[in-house]
Task: inverse folding
């Protein structure tokens, strides 16, 4: 195989598997360019990528879990004991 | 909420002084994640609670030795991982991240039926492409959609659920997650990708029920 030979263009089905690698900057420069070439010419994959981005943003706005009160209380007591032993 | 509580040195100094508010701030910020991560290593919720309790004690007892070479958060979760692993081994359970990642890698992100089959001139292109979401993003945070998203997260296999919660819900960096879960970068990415793909699919199905089955 000649080294400079171009990889075949990405298919849509391959693209959906690479979105996280693309967003994390984990693709090689060559695969990154291949990904962007595909997106540039594919309306559906553009929509898909945008939906993945929206999904990530929406996940980031979910309410955070809070500590149950009894566990919180227990830790406060543990802290007070530790503090006393230290004094 | 991203990253650190800001001012690790300040926080550590406050802990050393015995400042309750500083300690409870840490507890509120990292407590739920500590419990979930512990649960990945040990077989029961009860043991996970013990591991977390032990972790906080170890943090307090070690706070005089904390030198700030890593962030306080990284340091706390490394202590947790060590304690939890010891307990997990004692309880004969190993963390199934690599097998979970292998299983995840075999699953498609999108139902293969939505692509044109081999032999078609445009094989593997979308047959049934996604329709752009017309809803303003804010409406995706309606109670109804929120329920859909939370249910989708809940249905994920444990390793995928934990990675997406830490990365996307809690806003941790990839390095922080790798450290807390003792997992390779590749495995983390595979689990994260699979989890995100499923949540996207759940939102899509909710917004355009006729469009997809997956």
Result:
């Amino acid at each position: 195989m000649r080294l400079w030979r171009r990889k075949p263009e990405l298919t849509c089905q391959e693209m959906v598997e690479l979105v996280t690698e693309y967003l994390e900057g984990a693709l090689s420069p060559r695969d990154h360019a291949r990904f962007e070439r595909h997106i540039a010419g594919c309306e559906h994959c553009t929509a898909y990528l945008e939906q993945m981005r929206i999904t990530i943003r929406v996940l980031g706005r979910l309410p955070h879990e809070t500590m149950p009160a009894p566990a919180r209380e227990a830790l406060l007591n543990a802290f007070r004991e530790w503090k006393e032993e230290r004094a | 909420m991203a990253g650190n509580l800001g001012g690790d040195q300040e926080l550590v100094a406050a802990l050393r002084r015995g400042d309750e508010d500083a300690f409870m701030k840490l507890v509120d910020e990292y407590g739920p994640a500590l419990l979930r991560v512990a649960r990945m290593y040990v077989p029961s919720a009860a043991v996970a609670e013990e591991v977390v309790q032990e972790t906080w004690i170890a943090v307090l007892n070690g706070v005089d030795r904390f030198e700030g070479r890593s962030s306080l958060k990284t340091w706390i979760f490394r202590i947790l991982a060590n304690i939890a692993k010891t307990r997990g081994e004692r309880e004969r359970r190993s963390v199934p991240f690599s097998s979970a990642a292998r299983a995840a890698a075999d699953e498609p992100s999108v139902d293969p039926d939505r692509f044109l089959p081999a032999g078609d001139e445009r094989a593997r292109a979308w047959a049934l492409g996604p329709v752009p979401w017309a809803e303003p993003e804010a409406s995706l945070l309606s109670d109804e959609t929120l329920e859909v998203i939370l249910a989708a997260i809940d249905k994920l296999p444990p390793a995928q659920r934990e990675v997406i919660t830490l990365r996307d819900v809690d806003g941790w960096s990839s390095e922080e997650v790798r450290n807390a879960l003792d997992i390779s970068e590749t495995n983390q990415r595979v689990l994260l990708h699979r989890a995100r793909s499923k949540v996207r699919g759940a939102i899509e199905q909710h917004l355009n029920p006729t469009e997809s089955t997956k």
In short: The CA atoms of residues 133 and 207 of chain B lie 8 Å apart. Chain B touches chain A through 55 residues (CB under 8 Å). Chain B has a mean pLDDT of 90.
